[in-house]
Queue: 2 jobs
Job 1
Amino acid sequence: MSDQRDVQEDEALAAEYVLRLLDAEAERVFELRLHSEPDLRALVRFWESEFASLAADVPEEAPSPSIRSKLLAELSGAETSPRRGWAWGWLSLSALAAFVVAAFLAFSPMLRGPAFDPTLHATLISADGAVHIEAGYAPNGNLFKVIPEQGAPAAGRDFELWVINANADAPVSLGVIPADRESLFEITPEIAALIDGGTLAVSDEPEGGSPTGAPTGAILATDEFFDAALFQAG
């Protein structure tokens, strides 16, 4: 019974994740699970496919915040805003489907793109251990995610990421990264082509990034990109 309840709760969480209904902390926890749980990634892909088939017939008009709050309260049977990840283990799949379809029709403009499923990974740790940054690349959409685990630049300074590849004349900037939160962004196909077989580096730069287009400060850490499956297995 508990296993079935867990499956149903994961179905609900996956639907909420795709519809962007989870709060920031619940979304972070869910994405950590996605890295190591293939069944959960399959649920996300399922709901993405289901919602994508509906998207073509929905006008691209974002609902007002009041409509959003009222609908969520009505559908969840609550008078307040939804909790992070409703405990819907008691719902049947058909009831869950009815909810997410209704939510989709209201919130389709907020539908997220494909789930982040990296194929390459890099771990940047400085020699003294003060800086620790995890990074991943997903070719589906040329998405790049950066997760700062430890360390922050000094006042008036920024961390900047670089891709180093023998096929490029010089390090290529991925831009300045925030040190206090995860960031997910799209990179150009030209930069994406340098990642496989390349090296990731982080440098300490003036606020706003290097003024020259090349690293000007200390290189704090480097790591070659490797198969993300090895990282997940570890």
Job 2
Amino acid sequence: MRKMRRLILPMYLLLGACMPVAPSDTATRAASAGADSSTLPAVKTFSVPRPAAPVAANSDIARDFLDLAFALESGRVLPRLTRFEGPISVRVTGAPPPTLAGDLGRLLHRLRSEAGINISQTKSAQANITVQAVSRADIRKFLPQAACFVVPNVSSLSEYRGARRTVKVSWSRLERRERLAIFLPNDASPQEVRDCLHEELAQAIGPLNDLYRLPDSVFNDDNVHTVLTGFDMLILRVYYDPSLRNGMSRSEVANRLPGILARINPRGEGVAPQRLSRTPRIWIDAVQTALGPGANPAQRRVAATEALKVATAMGWNDHRRAFSHYAMGRLLQASDPDSAQDHFVLAQRYFGTGPQTALHRAYVASQLAAYAISGGRANDALFLLTPHLDTAARHENAALLSTLMLLRAEALDLSGRVTEGREVRLDSLGWARYGFGSDWAVRAKLREIGSLSPRKGRRNAL
């Protein structure tokens, strides 16, 4: 079973994580607002995907695949591999927002070309996967803290209503995948809808688990990545390799993985394995308490401290140690901004310089640039921001891209390059409309970042 997840990475108040859900086997994410009309520049969208090829060793990928495919996030072991056999058809029902058609078409093209999965869109009521676009209010009638979710063996929200507490919609009881439904909000920002689509469709056809040790994957509770990565496409390609079949046991799949990976990912044969340690439950619980719902500020601080202690005791020098510092920095920003900045610096250091954590470093850079702008250090802010603009674009994160651009515009203003700053700010608004949705949300982000400048009399942090 999967339990519901809420925000555990509140970087910009929109980047939710899909927590596991109980008692049903359902994955969800948190919502953001959208709008039907706007007085701002036209929405910008990403067209050509630029995923990076995975750089992991095949032995590490095999281990990751088994842990993703044969367990639920709760820790419950799955006895068999379940997948679709034959072509997969997808249809859209309900009242989809205008951007959904293009985003779905691009995603299906990627699944065909990168993962080798025979998947296509149809209008037939007998589709294997139904994507139903409904209001957030309708979704929250079933899961109050969810923005979207996927369940097996139903094709509509009304059908799910009658089956929601039965074994019919239990992932752990599933023996084969034949019919599933994804429920997406039609009144959220375009990026929120697309992120839901990527996560839920990946789960509908592939692994059900998430692993904190994965730095470059949507199959990770930190939810840094919101569109399927090159690593994810490789995992899905393995999932549908002809050497595997529905119903195989973990050991049967394990015996075939070395040959599959050597054939489809030969570059992984020459990469030294990292063999990252498993993530202990105590660290996961601490992080989710620190950044998730339900805890008061004091409890969050205690939990963040615990997560950092565990990361240190485990001897981690990877992205999980960095994330521990990032979480502490987020929680200290209001009460102790100097200490928060120190933790962001440490987070950036532990995220390293490799391609797998480039997106993580872009997030931290936005925080450090905000400090630089608040301190009147325009050139430092520009130095911090410049390398990460392309990273945000390559990972198709319009919310992050527009935030980085708005920070850059503020730094340019501060340095006296006002005309250039105005042009960058104007250029950012189309991306902000895709990332944040409604006019009020875009304007709120403009005010938030504008307030960072000491020229405007108030120090703030993102």
